[in-house]
From TrEMBL, chain B:
Its main location: membrane. This is ABC transporter permease. It is a multi-pass membrane protein. One of its GO terms (biological process) is transmembrane transport. It comes from the Bacteria. The lineage of its organism: Bacteria, Bacillati, Actinomycetota, Actinomycetes, Kitasatosporales. CDD domains: TM_PBP2. The keyword Calcium does not apply. Residues 124-342 form the ABC transmembrane type-1 domain. One of its GO terms (cellular component) is plasma membrane. It comes from Streptomyces adustus. The keyword Cytoplasm does not apply.
Length: 638, 352
């Protein structure tokens, strides 16, 4: 849902558009004259000051040589540096670099050691024993032990503030203990197949040093974690952070998974992708991601820059309100009754020409969508086969509706035989999302061809979410991404995600609720065999596909670029590869990145800078002197 | 000159917001100040109520927005609702809001889970720096151009200044910002870029003077964008005020005394024509804190405008209310200052 690269609307420029030209006169002139002259002097000196600053400031990051990796802050930024509270991708990305996790997830989805060297499960699958790597030290020199991990998990399990961000990940934990410094024992209430996704970098629980955090438990809610350098462990140590500006790191050359190849890293906040692209081109950044197709194509041919695609970890599509209800079955909201008919939803799915959208909206930098889980999780991938496919076929869509008794009225819009209401649906889109606007226009046109009217309503994300939760919607455009473990994404389609009897709570995404789906969801949670689990997830996706309450349109490829003259070893991946788990950059990307050997740098800039600025200063100074001289001479003459 | 006062006195009094009865002598300054202070306090309270009502009416579920996309259980969401005080009734929330505000507490942001006052504090200085510098420069530039354009109405300077300023005034801010950003940071054609593309400083540069110069370098583009867009209003107002003065008899008198044209303008015409501009400058100073969302976004400037926009998305009510309080307080304060300053600048306000 969160869109990063959207333009903001232009705001009115304060109270000035209409000028009030009342007539004022003054009887005395002396006081104002002084003020006026002082103001002029002040302004002149400021102008000169600024110009001098330009002249003296060093050229754009001229001297960082090979020592500093310059990255943008991920996503929409950092909400908090407290790992128990933070939700934003930018924060999780920071934690991945400065706090350890039990294990990592490789690009192919397999778990690999990090703090834990190895792990075993008991016969009954309820006890997990992790062997913690010996001899690792927090950045302040104190040893990292199993007790740190046990303390972190226990705090989240017992303290509701500590559970703010990651409480659901330990919901199935019965107990966590550390019998000795290198052994961590986790007992779960039910067998949990996703254990190796609980404490992974970025999307899992970061483990914090007990000796530092113990004293902050009482004021955890207000603790900003801002005494630098932050005591942690990872490839980096956070040495400075300014909200909305930057985070600075020193490399940890003893890092257990290999030393970073840079000595320092800087992450800078860019509030719009166009500016980040400009910063990449001017050398202020070494890497950008989250590009849109236009930015990507523009960077594609640039010398010294490599623009590349990664496999999509996100679906974009529409959600259809097939009957909003509470957990106990009470109807809520104002959804159109006809959408409860699976035939109507099938017709909608068949009316969408996904290939055209991929081509026109995403410039072919996307995959036609079908399955609920994105292509970045190839191990769980599922595709509809032959006759089950709801391909673009307006004729078929029309005949489905005809057969189901939805007759066209004189205006070409079909009428629901039961409720007697026209098939006129609200189509909610994100007002700050460019792609939503384009896609919805296509959809409205295609729906019209099958006798369905779509009324496009652009809203803020918060309004869309609020309407969704109350069931006050017909069709919504939506988009979701996922980390390495898709449990949450699948969980928002279960019956237990519906709101409670008062219509509150719940995290349902489309009011989908299906008994078979829920059974499969429960089974996959304790399916320890990866193959078996994949099979269950595929069956679940098939159920979702048939219901057409979540109609996938496309999976956008990740688009990123980096400077080949500055940095080497960036994990580029491919759009059609066997999967690259994109949130991984926080750990693997920054570890792999190495200074490029190319000696040619964009050093030519600084000469021009100095020249141009010096000229500006001279002109301004000369102007100032001239004005002052003229003024003083005329004063004299008087 | 007495006849001019008669014509415009009523308007001036109204604009200055002087209390109705006009017979009292000007010596009662404390009394004048007290009425103004009371009026300011009342306006502030009124904006508090309006702010609360408006934000409470916003249709949204903040907990949904905050947790969306993160694995969150029902229990966590319920806990979050309690923590945020969303389980309280509206009157209860209003009571807490007013008592907190009056005692100087701005609450805790829902989105950032930090005290609102520290979030605002972090961003106050960048906003003041950007908007303050831009306002000073655009006032100076605008007034200077306005005076000269008005004085020689129809001259080439007048035509260029008026045309250019109005063109820039009509240009969308974000568009101009992007164009300047691409031109000066990336470079166009053979011209290399030489200014930073965003942010407030280069984190790699530390230490006293280098840091100051680095911030100044980062300030150039956002400041230039702001100035180019807003200076037109000062040009327009100043120019028309000067034109209004052109035919005045006191200018003839001044010339008859043998003053040079420049001095007639500087010493007689400008001071008399300055009041509308002063009004506008103070109106503007009040809104300086509000920042400029578009400029801050284009140049990734870590300011208050940016913060309130982020708060609006959730919506993060404590943060929104906090920024709202700061913005309205600064507008009210600046109006108060303007009222007081008028008394010294304009004898007619004093005379009432």
């Amino acid at each position: 849902m969160a869109q990063q690269n959207s333009y903001l609307p232009t705001v009115p420029r304060g109270p000035g558009r209409r000028h009030h030209l009342e007539k004022f006169t003054m009887t005395t002139t002396t006081p104002l004259r002084r003020t006026g002259r002082k103001a002029v002097a002040l302004a002149t000196s400021l102008l000169l000051g600024t110009a001098a600053a330009i002249a003296a400031a060093p050229g754009a990051s001229a001297d960082d040589g090979g020592g500093t990796l310059r990255m943008p802050i991920a996503g929409i930024g950092i909400d908090s540096m407290n790992p128990f509270l933070a939700y934003f991708a930018g924060s999780l990305d920071v934690f991945a670099g400065i706090y350890p996790a039990l294990n990592t997830v490789e690009q192919d989805g397999t778990a690999k050691p990090y703090l834990a060297d190895s792990w075993t499960t008991s016969e009954d699958k309820l006890t997990w024993t992790f062997k913690i790597h010996k001899g690792l030290k927090w950045s302040d020199g104190k040893p990292i032990t199993a007790e740190d991990a046990a303390w972190t998990f226990n705090l989240i399990m017992t303290n509701s503030t500590a559970a703010t961000a990651n409480g659901s990940l330990v919901a199935n934990f019965a107990s966590v203990t550390a019998p000795d410094d290198t052994t961590l024992v986790v007992r779960t209430k039910q067998p949990q197949a996703t254990m190796l996704a609980v404490s992974v970098p970025a999307s899992g629980i970061p483990i914090v040093p007990k000796h530092i955090w113990e004293s902050h438990v009482t004021d955890l809610k207000n603790y900003k974690n801002d005494s630098f350098p932050v005591v942690g462990y990872g490839p980096w140590t956070l040495t400075d952070y300014k909200p909305e500006q930057y985070a600075k790191y020193d490399a940890n050359k003893d890092f257990v998974l290999g030393a970073p190849k840079y000595d320092h890293m800087i992450q800078q906040a860019f509030k719009n992708t166009d500016a980040a692209v400009a910063a990449l081109r001017s050398g202020q950044l070494d890497y950008v991601s989250g590009l849109n197709p236009v930015q990507y194509k523009a960077l594609k041919g640039q010398a010294g820059i490599k623009a590349y695609e990664t496999v999509g970890n996100r679906w974009s599509g529409i959600e259809v309100n097939g009957g909003a209800r509470t957990r106990d079955g009470k109807q809520i909201g104002t959804g159109h009754p006809a959408l409860g008919d699976v035939k109507v939803r099938e017709a909608l799915a068949r009316a969408i020409d996904r290939a055209t959208i991929v081509k026109k909206v995403r410039d072919n930098l996307a995959k036609v969508g079908a399955s609920y889980l994105p292509p970045s999780l190839p191990q769980y991938a599922w595709e509809p086969s032959g006759s089950d496919k709801f391909d673009y076929d307006p004729a078929k869509a029309n005949s489905v509706l005809d057969e189901a008794g939805y007759k066209k009225g004189s205006d070409g819009i079909r009428v629901d035989p039961k409720s007697k209401r026209k098939l006129e649906f609200r189509l909610g889109i994100h007002s700050d999302d460019d792609a939503d606007a384009k896609v919805s226009t296509y959809l409205a046109g295609w729906f019209k061809e099958i006798g369905v009217k779509a009324d496009i309503q652009a809203m803020s994300s918060s309004k869309l979410n609020a309407d969704l939760a109350k069931g006050d919607w017909d069709i919504l455009m939506d988009s979701w991404s996922t980390g390495p473990d898709p449990t949450y994404l699948l969980g928002i389609q279960t019956c237990s995600a519906l709101p409670d009897s008062k219509g509150e709570g719940g995290s349902t995404d489309s009011f989908f609720c299906d008994k078979n789906y829920d059974d499969l969801f429960l089974r996959q949670q304790s399916a320890f065999d990866e193959k078996e689990r994949a099979g269950l997830l595929q069956q679940m996706q098939a159920i979702l596909y048939k219901a057409n309450e979540n109609i996938m349109i496309y999976n956008a490829n990740g688009l990123a670029a980096y400077r080949t003259d500055r940095v080497d070893g960036i994990l580029t991946g491919k759009a059609d590869s066997t999967g690259a788990y994109p949130p991984q950059p926080s750990l693997a990307q920054y570890l792999n990145a190495a200074p490029a050997n190319a000696s040619s740098s964009s050093g030519g800039n600084s000469g021009t800078v100095i020249g141009a600025s010096a000229a500006a200063v001279v002109v301004l100074a000369a102007g100032g002197v001239f004005l002052m001289r003229r003024r003083s001479s005329s004063d004299d003459r008087e | 000159m007495a006849d001019t006062i008669d014509v415009t006195g009523a308007v001036a009094a109204k604009a200055a917001g002087a209390p109705g009865a006009g017979r009292r002598r000007g010596s009662a300054f404390p009394r004048y100040l007290a009425t103004k202070l009371v009026a300011a306090a009342i306006s502030f309270l009124a904006t508090l109520v309006i702010g609360f009502v408006l934000f409470s009416l916003m249709p949204a579920d903040p907990v949904q927005s905050i947790t969306r996309g993160r694995p969150t259980s029902d229990a966590q969401m319920a806990q979050l609702r309690r923590q945020l005080g969303l389980d309280q009734s509206v009157p209860e929330r209003f009571f807490h809001f007013v008592t907190d505000t009056v005692t100087g507490h701005l609450g805790t942001s829902w989105e950032f889970q930090q005290p609102v006052s520290s979030l605002i504090g972090d961003r106050l200085w960048p906003t003041l720096l950007l908007m303050g510098t831009a306002t000073v420069i655009s006032v100076a530039l605008g007034l200077w151009l306005g005076v000269r354009s008005g004085w020689r109405q129809g001259s080439w300077l007048d035509r260029i200044a008026t045309g250019a300023s109005l063109t820039l005034w009509s240009v969308p801010t974000f568009w101009l910002g992007m164009i300047l950003l691409i031109t000066f940071s990336v470079g166009i054609g053979p011209l290399p870029g030489f200014l930073p593309a965003g942010g407030m400083s280069d984190p790699a540069i530390t230490g006293g003077l280098d840091h100051v110069l680095d911030v100044a370098e980062h300030l150039v583009l956002p400041c230039l964008t702001m100035v180019l867009v807003v200076f037109a209003q000062y040009v327009a107002v100043m120019r028309s005020s000067i034109i209004d003065e052109l035919g005045s008899p006191y200018l003839l008198t001044a010339r008859a005394k043998g003053l040079r044209d420049d001095d007639v303008r500087r010493r007689h015409a400008v001071p008399n024509a300055l009041l509308p501009s002063v009004t506008m400058i103070f109106m503007h100073l009040g809104t300086v804190l509000g920042g400029a969302i578009t400029v801050e976004t284009v140049y990734s400037w870590p300011g208050l405008g940016q913060l309130s926009y982020q708060a609006l998305k959730v919506p993060d009510l404590p943060l929104l209310q906090g920024t709202f309080i700061v913005f309205s307080a600064s507008v009210i304060l600046m109006n108060l200052v303007a009222d007081v300053i008028y008394r010294f600048l304009d004898p007619r306000v004093r005379a009432q």
